[in-house]
Amino acid sequence: MDAGVLKMRPDFPGADLDEVVKQAGVLDEKYRAQHSGQPCEEWRGFIAAYHGTKTRFRAMTEAEETYAKTVPQSNETRENGFVQDSALFSFFTNAVSVLEVLCYACFSLAAQLQPSAFPMTSEKALRSVTPEFTLDRFELLYPQEPLTGTLRELRDDPALKELLNARNVLSHRGNPPRNYNVTLDFTLGASPQHKFIGGAKGDPPKWHGIVLDDEALSQRRAWLVEYVKRLVGDLLTFSKNNIGA
């Protein structure tokens, strides 16, 4: 494998995303030809988002894999609990970031077509490039594009709100609570044995509506993968429809 290629899971739409870059490259070439070979800031933002989407997606995937390995162990040690909580934090943080960075890619590509309508010329403007503002701009300027409809559907999806809530709770309030049974061994030098028992009856713990069983993250990753595929596919359609038109 090429040492310069980031290894991704097969369900990542890498070919379509690379084709979007190829399409956008036409705009970059035109700009550079008129500006002493220098790229515009919108192109820089687009390429940063391209790489960011891939790295966040892979980090999310690896977190899901790490988490899945902790569940059969039933959190029988505090160390396993640490690994699980770290994986949960990484998964939800990176999952939200995948979508936010991909929206940034949409915005920065459109900004190369209409810079004044998709402003990226100041730090204040860059901080304003949220998924909500991206949708606002596309609804105003590209209401008939499939990409606009997908961005709107994503915004209204309850699963996104759950994802955001989990990310925010983990970032600002700490780890999910745990119930443990502690078995004391009165043998000199022996340590207490902590066995994770989940909920009150030994079932998997339920945390903010999420059952932390072995499928907790795989289900949410599958949901996110479908949106990533749709967004990238629609972004490719958008680029073909508008670049060079």
Would you kindly provide a written description of the structure presented here, covering whatever features stand out?
The protein has about 240 residues and is mainly α. It has one domain. Helices cover about 65% and strands about 5% of the residues. It has 8 helices and 4 strands. It has helices at about 15-35, 40-70, 80-115, 125, 130-140, 145-155, 160-170, 215-240, and strands at about 180-185, 195, 205, 210. The strands form 2 sheets. It has a two-stranded antiparallel ribbon with strand order 1-2. A two-stranded antiparallel ribbon has the order 3-4. A hairpin with a 2-residue loop joins strand 3 (about 205) and strand 4. Helix 1 runs parallel beside helix 8, helix 2 packs antiparallel against helix 3 and helix 3 (about 80-115) packs across helix 7. The longest helix is centred in the middle third of the chain and has 36 residues, at about 80-115. The two termini are about 35 Å apart. Mean pLDDT is about 85; it is low at about 180-185 and about 190-200.
